[in-house]
Amino acid sequence: MLLNPTFFKTHKTSLLTVIASIMLYWVFAYGLVRTDYVKLVSIYAALFFLFYKIIQVFKSHLKFLAYLAFGFRAIFILAIPNLSQDFYRFIWDGRMILEGFNPYLYTVESFTTSQSTFPVAQAQELREGMGSLNAGHFTNYPPINQLCFVIAGFFAGKNILGSVIVMRLLIIAADFGTLYFGKQLLEKLKLPAHNLFWYILNPFIIIELTGNLHFEGVMIFFLIWSLYLLYIGKWQWASVVLALSISVKLIPLIFLPVFFQWFIKHRGDKKDKATLHNLTILIGFYTIVIATTILLFSPFYSSEFINNYSKTVALWFQNFEFNASIYYIAREIGYLFRGYNEIATIGKVIPIVVVVVTLIITFFRKNKTMIELITAMLFILSFYYFTTTTVHPWYVATLLILSVFTKYKFPLVWSFVIILSYLAYVNLNKADKSENLWIIAIEYTIVYGIFLWEVFFKKTPKKDLNS
User: Fold this and answer.
1) Residue 210 to residues 46, 75, 198, 239, 463: CA-CA distances in angstroms?
2) Higher pLDDT residue, 242 or 11?
3) Cβ(288)–Cβ(243) below 8 Å
4) What does the mean pLDDT of the chain come to?
5) Among 41, 102, 113, 431, which has the minimal tally of Cβ within 10 Å of its Cβ?
6) Is the model's pLDDT at 106 over the cut of 70?
7) Which residues contact 286 (CB under 8 A, 6 or more apart)?
8) Are 167 and 216 within 8 A, CB to CB?
């Protein structure tokens, strides 16, 4: 057996890193507030160091690493998220649906300003918890994400902590799925199975997804499951599962064009008849993805829903700013020449540039094998995050899981330095509420440095990627 007395005796010293990690996760979950920046960064850095040592020592003991991953997650079960307020809106949306309301048609503020009867239990507490910014906008969480909120509301009733626990269990269950299908896919691609633990055991993933209740973990589960199904030839089911991923978070929509070469060129038969057959399958794949996504949104459909949802999505490009890089440079240039913030203009240009780059990668880069396909997805999403106006820490989770199947490690480095973005909150209680651009510059200098080195300068032995 894996966990026999000999195992513990052999790894006695190394197991101290596990005990230290347990203690630090406990302090992080129950003894930390977001504004205690020194404590936040110190504990996170220590956890990251211990995480690296644990994988280094136990990478041949995958079951033990799996036990650790979910044991660390269990520490957070009873904790209220301490780095994010979004979960209050999750609870609000779930309770709204259970009360028969369409959450896409009402802002939280629409009830508080009209002084009408609140539609959900603990409305005031939820409103205060989520903050005025969240309460003032329509919800932007897709239907499968809303289903998770409903499940929490159904089982937890009027208990906020109970809702937190249910949502946390859903996210942990999704991580189990990611571990299972991710390991299967790595083995089929003849890649080291322990690579997956750079994601599953990463303190960033444990804290941001399990701890702070961000549903990227559920989206990632469906995404990896879809890629596994695609690899084993079950493209119809892969398209359905990909639609489920999109219906948790919209971000997988950006990957749709890059599947072109997988279907057209992957089969290797260049005959016109075969190419036409592959094109038919590609069209079928896209049709199922789009139709399933529309079907999942259909219970909430109305003209008002389309208007509200499109406006809410547009806010991320034209109103919100956080932890950006290239955009901040463009913004400063705009200040120099126009004298004011050009976010409305730049925000409209960014999606166009991202689409152009996505199409270039789709048609002018080799994406025929699964590793090449995932690498293309990694580059596309990286470019989007490099140029967008808003990069919340948990966004990096998708880059991290994709990197597990590639030779690139810059997302792993980003998952460490992303903690610096929380230092932007230093000014929130002061008259100057702007971000500290020096801190952001340090973060992105490190990320871009590793990215450029890996992509353009690092020499690696050529490997067969035709997997």
Assistant:
1) 19, 10, 16, 27, 35
2) 242
3) yes
4) 90
5) 431
6) yes
7) 239, 256, 259
8) no
Tokens (6 digits) for 151:
């499940």
| Helix residue ranges, H only, 232-342 | 235-246, 260-264, 272-297, 303-318, 326-338
Question: According to DSSP H, which parts of 189-259 are helical?
Answer: 197-200, 203-205, 216-231, 235-246
Centre a 10 Å sphere on the Cβ of residue 151 and count the other Cβ atoms it contains.
Answer: 16
> What sign does the dihedral 151-155-159-162 (CA atoms) show?
negative
213 Rama class: left (phi>0) / alpha (psi -120 to 50) / beta: left
Q: What is the pTM of this model?
A: 0.93
Question: What Cα–Cα distance (Å) separates residue 175 from each residue in 16, 179, 387?
Answer: 25, 6, 29
Using one digit for the tens of pLDDT, what is the confidence trace for 39-58?
999 999 999 999 999 999 99
DSSP string, 77-133: TTPPPSS--HHHHHHHHHHHHHTT--GGG--SHHHHHHTPPPSSTTHHHHHHHHHHH
Give bridge partners of residue 322 from the DSSP assignment. Answer: 390
Q: At 462, is the pLDDT very low, low, confident or very high (cuts 50, 70, 90)?
A: low
Burial 22-50 (b: 16+ CB within 10 A, else e): eebbeebbeebeeeeeeebeebbebbbeb
Q: How far is CA 313 from CA 297, 309, 344, 436, in A?
A: 15, 6, 14, 26
